[in-house]
Write the structure tokens for this entry.
Amino acid sequence: MHRLPAARLLPACVLFTASLLTATACTPGSGDASASAAAATRPDGSASTGTSTTLTAAQAQAALLTEADLGAPWVPTQGAATWRDGVLKARTTVPGCQRLLDALYSDEPLGAPTGTYAVTGFDDGNDSAQLRYQVLSQRPADVDRALAWLRTLPETCSRFTATTTRSGEQDVRVTALDLPDVGDARQGLRITFTSQQNTSDDSYDSYDYDEWDEGDGRNTEPTTALTLELAAVRVGSEAIALTEGAPGTLPPNVTAHAVQSGTQRLTDVRRSARVQA
């Protein structure tokens, strides 16, 4: 993954986190994930999650995954991946599917936070992958409605076309993703963005006759611009949400491991919060 120059990290990071991170939290150069890539907030006002055990900002941040949870080669993020604007900033005319694209770009698969939330991010330079991880205090009914909507997408948005800002027209496919049996409710999705890339080759033997286009004299091959996995789990009155994306293929088993570890970490923090209450 190409990293943005230091002078451009601040605006990219603020955009990438969809207002969940503060500018200070996005400042590169520190190996401490809690200082450089994580932020936790408990909004002012009377917003309520309908529970007396709502996590504090500090407790929500304590429930975030860490660099140690993921292991090498994951490190605290250095800013927005280039594929966020390049691929996820997209439009479609297919009814209902624009909501999915908007949720992926804003990093809000469970909707805008209404209670305490914390967010962090990690980069895997070996695979140009990036993982975004959130802990939220939301009303259980609101989370369950969001999960129910996500559950419909492998059928209602199984395949559609989207026009991106920098990667042209993409064939988008949405399938269900199996998650570990954790939490009170959960849903996972795998989303792929694939384009048709024209390539020329002077070697006669290399032509694929099934995909040979006699009209323009070029060979057309499908290219996966982005593979994205999305997972959300409700744990009582809190929830975790993560997205992991990479050009081409994703590193194996990261989403499942993050869901398993993150749910356990959140469960432990909730238990401690009840004891302290």
Observations:
- Confidence is low (pLDDT under 50) at residues 1-37, 43-52, 198-219.
- The CA atoms of residues 210 and 245 lie 30 Å apart.
